[in-house]
Amino acid sequence: MFLIALALAAPLAAVQPEPAPQPMTVEIVRDAITDRLSATATLRANGERIELRCHAPAYGEVSVEYHSRRWLARGNFLTGQQPVTYRFDDHAPVRRLWHVDERVAGFDNPDAVIAFVDGLLGARRLVLRTRDIENRTFDASFPIGETRPAIAALLQTCGSRRLNRRLLGGR
């Protein structure tokens, strides 16, 4: 009887609870020589992170990066692009080509960035699915806490009118 109870409890012990959502943080840096501003908003979970980045001279040039604990599959030999699928809450999954370099995958297509950041503003959970260098599919899960203050600070530092209006309602 004890062995049966132990066998039934083993799968339950393997399920790890999802960590509590953390608020997104933002860091704004002014270059000591050129006074150029850059901003990075970061969402962390399970030793991995999502970063939104921008630099003030290139207004509106916001990029999205996923920093993994694993080495990511390189994807296309010439372009370095790899399909990454992401999903916010229970919305439809989105599959996009991301540029991959070792443990970092990112994209900077303006329409894709707007859709991704908009998803971050309203979601409670983000799941990314991609492949590692051994061609194994894996998921990275991010419980999402408060994101609006960090994203607003990033966009006010170096966003464009197009991004700010669409994402922050014209602020």
Report on the structure:
With 171 residues, this protein is of the alpha+beta class. It has one domain: Sandwich (Immunoglobulin-like). Helices cover 26% and strands 36% of the residues. The chain is built from four helices and nine strands. The protein has a nine-stranded antiparallel beta sheet with strand order 1-2-3-4-7-6-5-8-9, with helices on one face. 22% of the residues are buried. The mean pLDDT is 84.
User: Which architecture does the CATH hierarchy give at level 2?
Assistant: Sandwich
Strand order of the largest sheet: 1-2-3-4-7-6-5-8-9
Overall pLDDT: 84
Number of domains: 1
Q: Give helix % range.
A: 25-40%
Number of strands: 9
Distance between the termini: 64 Å
**CATH homologous superfamily annotation:** Invasion associated locus B (IalB) protein
CATH fold group: Immunoglobulin-like
The top-level CATH class is Mainly Beta
Give a short account of the largest sheet.
Answer: 9 strands, antiparallel
Outline type: globular
SSE-based structural type = alpha+beta
- List low-confidence stretches: none
Beta-strand content estimate: 35-45%
Order of helices and strands: HEEEEEEEHEEHH
